[in-house]
Amino acid sequence: MIARKHKLTALVAGLLWSSVSLSAATFDHEIVPGRKDNFDKAAFRLWVDDETGRVNGIVCVALGINGDSREEVDQPVWREFALKHHLAVIGVFLRSPENAIIQYGRAERGSGAALVESLAALAEKSGHPEIASAPLLMWGHSAGGMFNFGFACYAPERVLAFATIKSGIFESPVSDEARAVPGLFLVGEKDRPHRILGANKAVFENRQRGARWCLAVEANVGHAISKANKIIIPFFEAVLASGFDPAQRPEGFGVDLEKMKIIPAGKPARSVKYSIWMPSEEFGPVWKKFIAKPAEK
Predict the structure, then answer these.
(1) Is 88 helix (H, G, I), strand (E, B) or coil?
(2) Sign of the Cα pseudo-torsion (279, 165, 295, 190, in order)
(3) Which end of the chain is more exposed for a tag (fewer CB within 10 A), N or C?
(4) CA 183, CA 105: separation in Å to the nearest integer?
(5) CB hemisphere CA count around 280 (13 angstroms)
(6) Which domains does the chain have, with CATH numbers?
(7) DSSP of 131-187, one letter per residue?
(8) If you count DSSP H runs as helices and E runs as strands, how many of each does the chain have, helices first?
(9) Strand pairing report for 24-31 and 213-218
(10) Which of 47-51, 181-185, 191-195 has the lowest average pLDDT?
(11) Given pLDDT bands bounded at 50, 70 and 90, which one contains residue 295?
């Protein structure tokens, strides 16, 4: 009797989820690589709920090296987030050519244009023309985070915010426009040293030039995604509090990590060597909780 009750509960839950998803649809698009492109595969899947009406923006999900993220659009965490904020979700599948020197993380070498072109095609396929120019919230693990960073450098006017999870190589050229894009760099305390150093270098050097970039170290974790969404979703929502126009991103404020002292938005004083940016006061406790070491048992 108990087992039967559990099955009934599961069935009801499934029907409820179906009832809010019947109007949703997915659309696929693939780009044929050119001779000079830095990928040999570029495929994208868009999920959008018709009840959303006009799409305000798009969550872009990119997994690690050569990972196919298209099925990530089915994840409840992204669908719920999208419905809450009237967003669409796009899953990215980029693959670098074998033995390529320039990987797809360098968005300016072809992969960025592939995403832009695909969004235009998916806008037509989905019947949502606004998707062609909608701003992006970019989530990426490892190489996916490198692509997010590269895309924010390639097309900063298209990005509301980006997050890199345990990424370590950030080679795309950075402009002042790219530094204006809110970015969250997550580091695993037990990840490989080159990834830790790469993220630190990217944040601290660009913070000296006013980058709206935050760094958070997750204790006792290596290269895994782990609890990244515990801080990424609040970061995205803090940015969204200023609206969906990339020109109206939050000014936020800086934090001097050596003195744990708040500093004004903009370029830090030359005496401040290690600082991070936060989009809002409410985000501060979230950041502090994320970086806290678990209590010893």
Answers:
(1) strand
(2) negative
(3) C
(4) 16
(5) 14
(6) 23-55+68-132 (no CATH), 135-297 (3.40.50)
(7) GGT--EEEEEETHHHHHHHHHHHH-GGGEEEEEEES-----S---HHHHTS-EEEEE
(8) 8, 11
(9) unpaired
(10) 47-51
(11) confident
Q: What is the mean pLDDT of residues 203-207?
A: 97
DSSP notation for 185-238: EEEETTS-HHHHHHHHHHHHHHHTTT--EEEEEETT--SS-TTTHHHHHHHHHH
Between strands 159-165 and 87-95, the pairing is unpaired
Nearest in space to 182 (alpha carbons), one of 134, 135, 236: 236
3-state class percentages of the chain: helix first, strand second, coil last, to nearest 5: 40, 25, 35
- Please state whether the predicted TM-score (pTM) of the whole model is above 0.85: yes
- Edge-to-edge order in the sheet of strand 213-218: 24-31, 41-49, 87-95, 57-62, 136-141, 159-165, 183-188, 213-218
pLDDT at 11 over 80: no
**Ramachandran bin of 218, using left for φ above 0, alpha for ψ from -120 to 50, beta for the remaining angles:** beta
| Banded model confidence at residue 160, pLDDT cuts 50, 70, 90 | very high
DSSP 260: T
Confirm if 149 and 162 have CB atoms less than 8 A apart.
Answer: yes
> Could you give the strand order of the β-sheet that contains 275-278, starting from the edge strand earlier in sequence?
261-263, 253-256, 275-278
Side chain identity at 149, as an amino acid letter? Answer: F
